[in-house]
Here is the input.
Amino acid sequence: MLKTLDQQARLTEEAHRLYGLLRSVSKSKAAKWTYEDCLAAAPYTLAINRFKKEQNAVILAHSYTTPDLVYGVADFRGDSYELALKARDSSADVIVFAGVWFMAETAKIINPGKKVLIPAGRAGCTLADSMTGEEMKKLRAEHPGVPALCYINSSAEVKAQCDSCVTSGNVFDIAQKIPGNELIFVPDMLMAQNLEAELKRRGTPKTIISSGGSCCVHDKYRPEHVEKLRADHPGICVLAHPECPIEVCELCDYVGSTKGMASYVAASDAKTFGMLTEFGLVNRLEAEHPDKTFVWPFGVCSYMKRNSLINTLEALIDPRPDQVVEVDPAVAQAAKKSIDKMFELAK
Ligand code: 13P
Ligand code: SF4
Here is the structure.
């Protein structure tokens, strides 16, 4: 009986901890986190945090995953670049990557001695899945001598064919450092258009050769969405990810990575922000800035949302084969060169 009471007390304490962190998430929406939701999540967060300690595991969560993961169990939360750095420098025995496959695959490539787990299993990404290594090889053969950058949202096989990898947070600066007036940038054709325009604005123009991929979340935004946000909320500050179409980005107040958007909000005096990005980042900003209002038209990445407390616990206790990340050693070695080059160029 005493043990039961003690367990009950710990659950209540954990539910209060979670509620303190999540109460302002989606305060105006149906996806609001209630105390009852936190109480239901508490047994999982307690168990995950216990297994994590026992196994010397670290949990990295992309900001697009759900708030119970981001705030309940993650040791680090962030964008692709920040999480890649954390994975590279981690001394934990196990890296649990709550994100999509290319992110966990990158973690395994740059820290191959670790056991890398992905709760969501082989969760894809429409960008990473849009191009094969063979297609990249062919593209390079069609443009001999032209340097090639790949977005981190690409497979290890594509990374292995490129000179350097980039993320949304460093693509403009790295591309600017690459000599020549032509550049291959894959696999995001919309980011390629944004890149070409930004390089022109900076006075270092280049012709960008790309492939045909796009993000199924960000490619849906249209100028009308920005116009409606501005009409409905006078004074609103509109933020977009560079995976959005160029005609949308050109109407926004800020275009940048998920980390860039978070930093912009933190530094801004504005009170209301229009968010042309995935819901998870909106949730994060609501949790971290309860005094600000975030208006989000739509946009959910179903791949990111495959990560849950339940499959995180499963991965820690007894991972399914598809939750264990392995990369062919020859491909990994070549892909690592392009990721290491990014770390060097991003300094
Ligand atoms: P960030 O690196 O900006 O977090 O972007 C990752 C991503 O998948 C965006 O859709
Ligand atoms: Fe890929 Fe888009 Fe999902 Fe990001 S939001 S992981 S780019 S499908």
Summary: The longest helix spans residues 2-22.
